[in-house]
């Protein structure tokens, strides 16, 4: 039996060349709520068509793409036969300045059905023009959404504004592992936040040392460049369809994003000598770092088939906003309400039917399931998936969930574009474990309004939530304020008509941004750590 030595950390000799850096303590820029007079239109194009296959969104420079095309199954189309705009929001327009869609392409006004935001920026999108605060719908950072209709945000967007950020303050660490041959034995190191410059998002150049030579590389939670010299010299221009720069060529190897990426079959005569890494900046909405607390639990050797079924359509769709662990996988198709019936899918509960309870052991935890056990046609044919609830699932490109890390993990994520991420038709097995990601949680915000002149903004931090139950305390609201609108960012909450969190209620919220409007004033609310895909 092979022994995996991937995490034989060599931090002292390997990263001694990386200086520790501290965040900039200077004052941040002030956001501009709306533009008061016309501003220049940012640099962009409306004619890229099929030249954009989404692989071009690989740059630290802020890039935005907007499209209105869908196929007969309401799946979004990124290519020709679209009205589109793709551009660079900070080229000609100040940070936080409102950009009206009608100024970019009049054909996109209230017709946008899909978008992409990549690079070191976060963009907020608004209903109608002029970026009015009360019309804010959602924000996005390194995110692509080809199904805005699922969140009722299609055909309404009229403006957006972007701010510069690389999310340094939320970053924890990334890891690199190299394998000299096809065996499971490898060497690895971990790069902590302090080694990344908070402004540029980049580490210093460092020697590879014992990590080279290698035949296979695995990078998790960052983007790295590997060079055939000791000074990190070479052509490093990112692919840029807006300015039509050429892609990275020569002998440089580039691996990584916000998930786990494996680069295989590197010629043995290609010896890399140095590397530099960046905070992640590419499109990886569904791929997440593995949970520390449960990811390395023992595999259950006697594999159990979890409860679930193959259904002809996405009839479970409304059931993915739940604490209980749910998983859906689809064959050769992007999932949606009208997925073709001749495409196989499986939707079920990988941790069993018992209600979620972190304090109790779960008989299905780390239970390895081969895709062929669910349906023979799902073996090496999965093109999209959903993982929701208080669990995380790891996916493997071989059967029986081997000891080395899988190709990626998912936690409260939906991904209908595995083909864009290099994992299409690769999944052969998976396992899931309980987690509410308490350790990774930072804070969430809830903004209340009466729709006129009364507003209340609340921020809940990690200490406000119980680690095991994931709940925060009940909070009462002043009766006289008659707050009827709420915007939740980063947690799941239940809102009540009463003042003591009892009686009639409605749930809202996940790891993203959700807005709700109610006929009756909100009297109280209680939040918990986020669940449900976004």
TrEMBL record:
The keyword Signal applies. Residues 1-17 form the signal peptide. It comes from the Eukaryota. Keywords: Signal. Residues 23-52 are annotated as: Disordered. This is Uncharacterized protein. It comes from Dactylellina haptotyla (strain CBS 200.50) (Nematode-trapping fungus).
